[in-house]
Each structure stands twice: as C-alpha cells, then as structure tokens.
Amino acid sequence: MEKLLVLGIGNTLLTDDGVGVHAAEILWKEEWPENVTVMEAGTFTQDIYVLFQGYDRLLVLDVIHAEHKPGTIYELTEDDIRSNKKQRVSIHDIDMLDSLQMCEMRCGKRPKMEIIGMQPHDITTWNIGLSEVCQGQFDNFVSHARKRINEIIAEMN
C-alpha cells in the first residue's frame, strides 16, 4: 500500500510563515486512512529528509513566494518548482528538492512531492497568527489541502 506524508512547514512566530503548520494542525485532527500521515515540521532543516523515508507521496503545505497577491493559493508539482526558481520551496536553510535528493541518496528512493502554498503578506513581523489577508484565505487553503489529500488517496488505491 502506498503511503502519503502531508507536511506542514514554517515558523508560527513569523505571521504568515506559519500557514502550513497551522493547516497541518487542523488536518492532523481529522480522520485519515492508515496510509496517510499528517505532521508539522516547523522549520526543521538539514535532516528533514529522514521524515520522507517510507513514503511514496509528499504533500507540502507552506508559503510560496511567487509575487502574486497575498492570500493567493497555489498547487505546484516538482516540475513547476524546477522550472521556476521564483517558486522554490525552502525550509530556511535547505531547499525541498535538495532534501528529496538526500532522501533518495540515503534510502534508495524518495516520495513524489507536490506543494500547496499561499502567497504571504508578512513573514517578517514577530506575531503568532496570520495576517488579516491570509487569515481570510486560510479556510480555502485548508480546503484545498483536504481536497488534494483525498485525490492523492484515490490515486494511490
């Protein structure tokens, strides 16, 4: 049976940077099949690849800097990230594509990654909670993630 890891990343102390973590906290409380794991990794950096071991699919929830209107929600594939450096997903010290490569080198295989991201309004202000504009889109962000999780589950079965 294929396994899916849903991973919320970001810093909940820096306003919108925590959107992925906040979403993962909500999704974690919901009931999912046994082959789905929801967790938050905060700003876990260099060794994040160890979390990927044993998973076939990876859905990352995070902020995406793509120079669009704050609150804009994106669904990206690995190919999207590779082809547009402006949309790179970085966990502070290390790029997600590098983490996937480390997992493959260490374990012999790695999960296929997708990202659901939100354009942040503010990631520099010390504040627990989202900016007003991103908070206004947060339920849509979680719904987007929930919908994609269910689609991935159907694809894996």
From TrEMBL:
**InterPro entries listed in its UniProt record:** Pept_HybD-like_dom_sf, Peptidase_A31
GO terms for MF: aspartic-type endopeptidase activity; enzyme activator activity
| Keyword annotations | Aspartyl protease, Hydrolase, Protease
Q: Which domain of life is it from?
A: Bacteria
* Pfam families on file: HycI
Q: Name one GO biological process term.
A: protein processing
Q: Which family does it belong to?
A: Belongs to the peptidase A31 family.
Q: What is this protein called?
A: Hydrogenase
Q: Lineage from the top down?
A: Bacteria, Pseudomonadati, Thermodesulfobacteriota, Desulfovibrionia, Desulfovibrionales
